[in-house]
Every structure is written in C-alpha cells, then in structure tokens.
Amino acid sequence: MSSAVHADRLARLRAELKARGLDGFVVPISDEHMSEYVGAYAQRLAWLTGFGGSAGTAAVLPAKAAIFVDGRYTVQVRDQVDGTLYDYVGVPQSSVAEWLGANVGAGQRIGYDPWLHGIDWARGLAHALAAKDAELVAVDSNPVDAVWDERPAPSAAPVAVHDTALAGQSAADKRAIIADWLKAKGLDTTVMTALDSIAWTFNIRGTDVTHTPVGLAFALLHADATADLFIAPEKITEAVRAHLGNSVRIHDRDAFEAALAELAGKKVAVDPDRAVAAIFTALEAAGARIERHRDPAVLPKAIKNDTELGGTRAAHVRDGVAVARFLKWMEAHAPQGGLDELSAAAKLRALREESGALKDLSFDTISAAGPNGALPHYKVDETTNRAVETGTLYLVDSGGQYADGTTDITRTIAIGRPTAEMRRRFTQVLKGHIALATARFPKGTRGSQLDILARQYLWADGVDYAHGTGHGVGAYLAVHEGPQRIAKPSGGQAGTEEPLHAGMILSNEPGYYKAGHFGIRIENLVIVVPQAIAGAEEEMLGFETITFAPIARDLVEGALLSPAEADWLDAYHAQVLEKLAPGMDEADRAWLAAACAPIDRGAAALAA
C-alpha cells in the first residue's frame, strides 16, 4: 500500500482528534481482551501505519508521530512504515510515556481508549503527562474507528462445544475449581477477559481470531460455581446452550460493562495483566472491592491433563507426517528453481490439510528464504515474497490447529551446498537445542534458569539471538500461552516467573540470525515430565520431546558434536522414523529412512 494512503489516514485521524478537542492519541495493537493476536476489526495500528507485526504502538501528535516496536521488528517496521510520517522508537530502550513526555506541551490533552490498555499503563502515562502539565483523557469511542472506512465487523461466527473427551475435564468441574479458589480467598466473583481462558473454562472454541480458536466473550465467575457469559447472541447455538447448562447465564456481549456496575460491594478479583483499564474504572465507579489476582484459569490451563497430553501427542504425529512430506518435496523441487516463499507455505498448508483433521494454522507460517530468514518474526506477503534460491538457507516456522492439539515446529534446510559458516552455526544451535531437550532440573526451577543451556555454544563464539528460547503452547488453543516461558530474566524479575510444572507444554527453539544473509532455528515442542533418577534427593523434572520431523543432517558439522549429542540426534531420528512411517506411503517412507539415518560417528567422535 502506498505511503500516500497512510499519510491520508494519519491526516484524517489528526482532524478527528482536533474535532474532539484532543492533541494526541495512542494506538496499540490490542483488543478489549488484551490479546496477543487480534481480530481484523481490532487491527487499528496496521490500518493506520501499515505495520504488520504482532506487537507495537503508535503515538500521534498534531505535528509529530512515532511507532514503538521491540527488537524483533527493527527491520520490519522500516520496511512497512513511512519514516517521514513516524519516528521509529525502540522498546524497552524507550517508551510511549518517555516519548510523549519529551514531546507534549503544557495543557495538551492526549487521548487513549480505555478498552485497549491496561490500568497500570494508563496510570503510568497519566503520571508522566501530569509532570508536563498535560492530561491523559479516556475516550468514549475510538477516533481511529471514526475515520476507518469499511472497518471489518467483529466475527459473528458461532462458537462450538469442545467435547470433554478432548478436554479431559468438564466445564462444570472447571467452574467448581475456580469457585473453590474464590471461596478460599474470600472473594465473590472473578472477571475473566482473556479469550483463551474463557474458551478453556467453558470448553468452547471459536473462529473469531485468525489461527486462535476462541470466541469473543467476557465472563464473570462466582463463588457459587455459577457464571455469566457475555457473548453475541448469534454465536450461541442450541448445542452450546445445552452444553453450558443452567448454571451459566448467557448475556449479550454489549451488556458486560453494565453488569460490572451491579457488583457494588462485592469482592472482585481482576487480573491487571489481562483486564483493560475500563474494567477497573467501571468496578471502582460501582463501588466494588477490587483485589488483584492472576486469572485463575491461567495455571490449570497451562498444566495439561492426561487427555490433553495424549491428544497433543497424536496431533504432533499427524502434523509431523505433513512436515516430513513437505521437507521431501522441498528437497526435490527447490534446487530446480521456481519456488518462492508463498508457494512453499501454500504447499505446506495443503499437505497439512490432506489429513482431513486440520482446523486452521496455529499462526501465519514464517516461510523465509535467504536473508528473510534473518528476521525472526518475518511474515511473507506479495511485496516481500522472495525466491528460494540455491546456495541459501530456507527457514520455515509453522504449526497447525487440530481438535486434539496445537503444533509449532521450525526447520531450517540448505538449498544446495551449505557453507562452512552455515554448518557451524546450525550445529551450535542444534547443540543448544539438545542441551535443553536433555536437561534435568529440580521442581521449582524457572525457565530463565534453563535459558543459558540453549545459548552457551553460541555465546562461546560471541553470538546470540534476540528472542526467547521457549514459550508455552495451548491444547487446541493459543500457540503462545503463559505463564511458562524459557528466556533470559526480564528486568531482573526472575523470582516472579512461574516455575515449570509437570504437564506444561513449551517450545525449544534456539536460533541464530546473520542480518542480510540467513537465519537458523530448530524448534520442537516439549512436555515437562517427572524424572526418576536413582538416588535423587530432589523431585526432578525434565522434557519429553513431542515434535517429530527430520533435522537437516547435511547442516550438521559432526566434528562439533560430542558422542552424547550424536547419540541424541540418532535416537531422535529413530523416533521420527518410528512415529511417522506408519502414516506414509512407500516412497515417503524410503525418503524418511534416508533423512533419519545415523550421522557419521567418526566425525562426532572428534568432538569428544
């Protein structure tokens, strides 16, 4: 889209702000549920600026504007957003509050939509503006929506029942657990706003957010195990109504704010990390007694039950067959030329669809050739689409949504003969991947304490990667799920991170990125499982790898592997062959057997 289009949109927003008596406005990527991924109706930042990443914010003043992104999007934002319209500001090095504090004047009124921001963010920005004698103003309606022609409507698609046979626990049992939690803390009600928490708690799934099977809704759960679900009426079928039962009262989604006003005098739990500022304001105005607590569905949702774990294992085998067949196809066709990132991604999706079980992708496939692979969160489109060329690396990060599980896998392959540098970096990433996959650790360990295992071999060469090593994954839910993670400590707050619990699913995805040249990432999903160790004096945990697809053996520098690492790779490939071969035809099985053959043990022995 041309720069002139976004210049016009910015001008129209400024005119709307002036008409409302505002001197500025903050535009985040967010929705009323503070979701990571939002529906088309809430893609205000993309419409205004052209930025297509999943995290970012813009601040608009009468004569100046800025867009704020983290290190994942430093290159992408410059490709997509006109630098004559917006300053590029990196976070966390700076912030919206810092930039506005340096650019506002006394008496200026800066607007924000209280349904798109957290309460602590709003209070912090209000404090920063007050120091400049400026004011933060909550708007009644979003000014971007007023100038956004043909803005998509929120999805009207019905939600569906997620059967207990897949969930492993009934919705009534989940509500009872939350009710017990409320009673134990002396609370009357909890406000639930996170879409995946609502989907999990009520055992429903939807199609309102691309790639994340949730429905747009709010909920109030009470200490008597009843609940109020606020959702558009057209989204509730008779089957869903019967599934929810008489203990769940169904209301129009638009009635949610008014319902908050009825909680006067009640002790209400609200999660400040998941509930927007407008909810706090409404409860305070009603006279409710607010207590800050984490959403009570977050941890039980993250700790999968045996049914969920069994389902996700099955989904990964099904998904692995498709990925392996794709790798075979790439090996045969990429060297011939004619392939590009879009056509490769389309082929992978088609292969996943052949199972008949695919509900959706779990995120937009990162199909990245050559230098595009050096952008960890690259998203291919018609303007960035690059040919897959001989002499380069191709990185594909993809996943599927199945009724029994969510997958996420990254493989990097060489198109033609890889360079010595490519092989060295790939092997260092692999060594880190193996170190994390084989880690054993005491119960209570946090992901930040394991992160160095995946980075150590890169650090030894003075290189690193700028993203986390592992994120939580849902069970036919969000591909990014908290509270578990494996990453460097954030702001020195390692003590506040969630310990890893048996039953959690995480990714194991170290990488390396050489700007302008290539990217490497090896990603499998793992389950946290108990470890029986003879003579152990602590309760120990480890990881079970559940992703199965060949790792590019031609990119492995065997001399850099220890015998133990070579053993792991061979054993992993033996598992891949065992798991995937039954779902393949004879030709595919023959290819898979070759792709999973043992590596050169002599070369590996050199590293001993």
TrEMBL record:
| Record key words, sorted | Aminopeptidase, Hydrolase, Metal-binding, Protease
Residues covered by the Creatinase N-terminal domain = 9-140
Its domain of life reads Bacteria
> Taking every annotated instance into account, which residue ranges of this chain make up the domain Peptidase M24 C-terminal?
539-599
The residues the entry assigns to the signal sequence are none
Enzyme Commission identifier(s): 3.4.11.9
- According to the record, the segments passing through the membrane are none
Q: Which InterPro entries does the UniProt entry name for this protein? A: Creatin/AminoP/Spt16_N, Creatinase/aminopeptidase-like, Creatinase_N, Pept_M24, Pept_M24B, Peptidase_M24_C, X-Pro_aminopeptidase_P
Pfam families linked to this entry: Creatinase_N, Creatinase_N_2, Peptidase_M24, Peptidase_M24_C
Question: What molecular function does GO assign, one term?
Answer: metal ion binding
Q: Does the keyword Hydrolase apply?
A: yes
Q: Which Gene3D superfamilies match?
A: Creatinase/methionine aminopeptidase superfamily, Creatinase/prolidase N-terminal domain
Annotated ranges, domain Peptidase M24: 312-528
Q: Which family does it belong to?
A: Belongs to the peptidase M24B family.
Quote the gene name from the UniProt entry. pepP
**Name of the protein in its database record:** X-Pro aminopeptidase
Q: What class of enzyme is it?
A: hydrolase
Q: Which PANTHER family match?
A: XAA-PRO AMINOPEPTIDASE 1
Entry's CDD domains? APP
Coiled coil (UniProt feature): none
GO annotation, cellular component aspect: cytoplasm
